[in-house]
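hi! just following up on the protien thing from before. the input was this:
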Amino acid sequence: MSSPALHPEAYKAIVELALQEDLGAEGIDLTSAWVVPAQVQASAAVIARRAGVVAGLKVAGAVFNRLSPQITCTQKIEEGSALSPGQVLLELAGPARAILTGERTALNFLQRLSGVATLTRSFVEAVAGTPARITDTRKTTPGLRALEKYAVRLGGGVNHRFGLYDAVLVKENHATAAGGVGQALRLARQGARDQGRRVRLMAEARDLDEVRSAAAGDPDRILLDNMDLDELRHAVHFLRREAPQVEIEATGDVTLDNVRQVAETGVDFISIGALTHSAPALNLSLLFAGA
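and the predicted 3d structure came back as:
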């Protein structure tokens, strides 16, 4: 399982881009610059409006510190912790202008990442007691993949491959172009040998015939794509008997309503694109002291 740690280099550039998007070419917040005197100091807190799982506190802090090194950011809860309505996540103190300027950008990151962590935790809890682990996909917001996959880890999930560069995943169109799942895996394995690389080989299979073909290619993992529960059970039974070394993943059309049933078929992993492409933002607010 990947470590939940997040290196500052993973979010430094995206924080800069987000602030440029809000402040424009002149780098100015007109309202705060014209309404709030430069010398005014303030204290504020980020507060949860709903229950959930917190993710992104370090990113939010980076937003405020980029605007003013004089702002102190004090985390009041650990990343990945459960939140209750009204709970304080982050306390801020420093120039009022800079806090106001960074408010929306910081909250955008916090709400988005906490939403991903919260939805992930719901899926993880739904399969508790089974061997299945919840994993993400590449269906992430462009530019935010490292952050969203970090939030998945905080929610208790595990990360799939990060991109096209770190693993082979033979999908339907690859198989069609290569002449079948088995042939695609053989070509991928040869390509890895030719470059002297050891990479994980994975393949999707849509039915039992493709499962057999994929298993013959000796991949590290087979993804059972959009199979119903009976098909999943048959595929798991076959693979446990004929290819016990292969990891088994269920993918496609998994929801909170059916994830427990999918887990009980005996798969090792369940991948869910919704963790990152459809997670609702967690409702958070930033309030000045006395507001």
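The chain has a mean pLDDT of 95.
Residues 182 and 214 are 5 Å apart (CA to CA).
cheers
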